[in-house]
């Protein structure tokens, strides 16, 4: 009996430890050996499949209206070429949006943008990624979609700073 209760205690401790590690990894700055899920299920607002690129890339996971507005305001200051060539990936999780709203309202509005927005209709890609409510998740990728760093942008100034690493931007109209 004693052995089985110590085994159960050990299993519970192991499960709690695993839960704590899995639940807190998003707060860490570096995420060693984490690979971004396959992005081939993504399409942009024009229905074009994701082609992607290997190497230094920044993925912006955008969820929520307030965050979306901050991203759009910041991207108005950035050369859209960095989004078009894949140095920056704008990933929008629209899996929770009603299909009629996404089909007839949201996606048609996205077609007015000068850059691709990669849509996760199923949530399969975005669901495994870290996020904080009201913030943009920024995933710095290396070769083979390996996540090198995770950060969270809660201000336009910080988001712009991160985008400047990969994009040429005009700083004239953006306030801190």
TrEMBL record:
Superkingdom of origin: Bacteria
Keywords: Signal
Stated name of the protein: Uncharacterized protein
PROSITE patterns the record matches: PROKAR_LIPOPROTEIN
Signal peptide: 1-26
């Amino acid at each position: 009996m004693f052995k089985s209760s110590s085994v159960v205690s050990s299993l519970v401790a192991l499960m709690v430890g695993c839960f704590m590690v899995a639940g807190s990894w998003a707060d860490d700055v570096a995420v060693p050996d984490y690979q971004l899920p396959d992005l081939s299920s993504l399409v942009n607002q024009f229905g074009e499949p994701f082609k992607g690129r290997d190497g230094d890339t920044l993925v912006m996971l955008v969820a929520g209206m307030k965050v979306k507005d901050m991203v759009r305001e910041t991207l108005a200051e950035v050369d859209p070429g960095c989004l078009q060539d894949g140095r920056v990936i704008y990933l929008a999780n629209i899996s929770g949006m009603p299909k009629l709203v996404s089909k007839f309202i949201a996606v048609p509005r996205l077609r007015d943008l000068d850059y691709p927005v990669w849509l996760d209709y199923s949530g399969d890609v975005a669901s495994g990624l870290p996020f904080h409510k009201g913030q943009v998740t920024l995933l710095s990728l290396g070769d083979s979609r390996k996540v090198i760093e995770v950060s969270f942008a809660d201000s336009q100034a910080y988001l712009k700073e991160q985008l400047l690493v990969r994009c040429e931007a005009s700083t004239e109209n953006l306030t801190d």
